[in-house]
Amino acid sequence: MFHGLRERKHVHYFRTLSGVVGMLRNPEGTDSVFDIEDGLRDIEASRLAVEHALSFPSVRAMAEERYLRPVPDIEQLAAMPEGTLGYHYAHHLKTHGFDPDYYRKIGVETDAEYLALRMRQTHDIWHVVTGLSADRTGELAVKACELAQTRRPMAAVITAGGMIRYLLKDPDQLPDVMEALYKGYTIGSRAKPLLAEKWEEQWGQRLDSIRVRLDIEPGDYLPTASDSGDAEREHAAE
Asked: What is the DSSP letter of 152?
């Protein structure tokens, strides 16, 4: 049904467990997220998630093309007209001090590897397009959105781990976390496949028009004004 995906039968338990423990200790650490993803890449659920993603012709076309683009010039995007995707993406990164090239690189020999790299490459674009904040609960909300869109096991583990983390360390905040997860999952369930989008060719388009086209209702997402500066992610390039 899809080409280039190797048959894999096992879980890299140590790497997955190490990633989960690291995430519980430091929710802002991106290395833990990548460890979880890399550790789960061989399981049957990951194969089925790739199969699900490629069941959408638009996503399959992206994978067959191996569509990837270099890191954009953030200053050029920041100078674009206010209201455009490029403007909002650049200001999202600049506001939080994020590095657009933060993610761990992987080879792209298979469809699974391509989809994983594309998810890493466009993570912050998903934040901007969905309107989900970049604080801790917003990060979990984006993973819930990703889970609804892609069914990736990594997204399920991170959302579950996030709930456990708040249950153990900040139980008073658990209702807010559950609300964020609900909103993120709702956005992902309703929206058209975000993995099918060539975002880099849409920098000059208005963000509100993109949301309408993708069926992202303005009332469904968390306002970016709720972002908390003390909960920024540690974008660590490897």
From this structure: -
Q: pTM of this prediction?
A: 0.79
What tokens were used for 24? 């519980």
**Structural tokens at position 193:** 């496949």
Residues 153, 46 contacting (CB under 8 angstroms): yes
Distance CA 120, CA 115 (A): 9
SS3 84: strand
CA atoms within 13 Å, Cβ hemisphere of 171: 2
What are the phi and psi torsion angles at 234 (to 5°)? -95, 95
Of 194, 192, 193, 158, the residue nearest 177 (C-alpha): 158
Locate the domains of the chain by residue range: 13-231
pLDDT per position in the chain (238 positions), as tens? 434 434 344 445 445 545 445 555 555 555 666 666 666 777 888 899 999 999 999 999 999 999 999 999 999 999 999 999 999 999 999 999 999 988 778 889 999 999 999 999 999 999 999 999 999 899 999 999 999 999 998 899 889 888 988 998 999 999 999 999 999 999 999 999 999 999 999 999 999 999 999 999 854 554 433 333 333 343 433 3
